[in-house]
Write a structure and sequence with these properties.
- The protein has about 290 residues and is mostly helical.
- The chain has one domain.
- Helices cover about 80% and strands about 0% of the residues.
- Helix 1 packs across helix 8, helix 4 runs parallel beside helix 11 and helix 9 packs parallel to helix 13.
């Protein structure tokens, strides 16, 4: 099962709320989430509100000239905050998607669930959809908002660079490929995060281990892609922090903006194919593992 089918089924279950397995899981999982995902954003806001005036006071009273590093500080802050926000549609989904399955396996009722007249794929995704429903609207909103800068800024950057360096037609081609790749990448990350969360439930019977494995999986989705992109564009005439920020905004398509060329084009298309292959392989493994108990 690929990205489009996984996302389609998640939307069907969450919007319809009529599937019996989804409804049963929603009733069973009405307990509060293991933690509040918006709490860290509040903490970060408080730190910024308190920390910036303190830094200004230290600069005036102790003679520190932080203004000399202000550009570096601002770039680093944006890269850090952007990187944390980019985890908002991978970590929550990967951590929560397997909660219901893990609970069924702990209670030794998973085998009984498999004898219901529903395909295994539907059972897995209905359970996952019910578990991620509390954060689903927030994840979609964050994904949409994070994609807008990439579509409206990274795309024109690609076009401008290619028009100056080579051909305007290549610039238009790269801009279109980059914009499509950005949208596809976000959908694939959602599907991959949910699939990783489901797979985590079959690695261990412990719900805490399931949450931990989901957390690690959600982090790896972002870190591996970012590292691969930064390795490819290491020769770009941009500061590392700017490259990191561009990657947060445009994803793997940042390679097209930083180093426009067919090498970057092959990289972006290859990343799409690799993610899709990983999603299909991992989901097929979860279906086989589901029948093993």
């Amino acid at each position: 099962m690929g990205t489009l089918e996984i996302v389609r089924q998640l939307l069907f279950h969450i919007q319809g709320e009529s599937h019996p397995i989804y409804a049963a899981e929603r009733r069973s999982g009405m307990a509060a989430l293991p933690f509040k995902f918006n709490r860290w954003g509040s903490y970060l806001f408080v730190v910024l509100v308190i920390g910036l005036p303190l830094l200004a006071l230290a600069e005036s009273q102790l003679g520190f000239r932080l203004s000399l590093y202000r550009e570096l500080l601002i770039s680093g802050l944006f890269a850090l905050v952007g990187g944390l926000l980019s985890l908002g549609w991978t970590v929550p989904l990967a951590m929560l998607a397997g909660r219901g399955i893990s609970r069924e396996r702990t209670a030794q009722t998973w085998d009984a669930l498999l004898v219901t007249p529903h395909p295994t794929e539907t059972i897995l995704l209905a359970k996952a959809a019910a578990d991620i429903e509390p954060v689903w609207k927030g994840v979609l909103s964050l994904t949409f908002i994070a994609s807008l800068p990439g579509l409206f800024f990274a795309g024109p950057i690609m076009l401008f660079k290619m028009m100056n360096a080579q051909s305007p037609w290549l610039g238009i081609l790269f801009m279109l490929v980059g914009s499509v790749a950005l949208v596809v990448e976000r959908e694939q990350e959602v599907a991959l995060s949910v699939t990783m969360g489901i797979a985590a439930a079959f690695i261990s019977d412990s719900r805490r281990v399931t949450l931990l494995v989901g957390l690690i999986g959600g982090l790896l989705i972002r870190l591996v892609q970012t590292l691969l992109t930064l390795i490819l564009v290491r020769s770009a005439p941009l500061a590392p922090l700017n490259l990191a920020l561009l990657n947060v905004v445009a994803g793997s398509s940042a390679a097209l903006a930083a180093v426009p060329g067919f090498e970057s084009l092959i990289f972006v298309v290859g990343m799409i194919a690799a993610r899709e292959g990983l999603i299909r392989t991992l989901f097929a493994w979860t279906v086989r593992r589901a029948h093993e108990g």
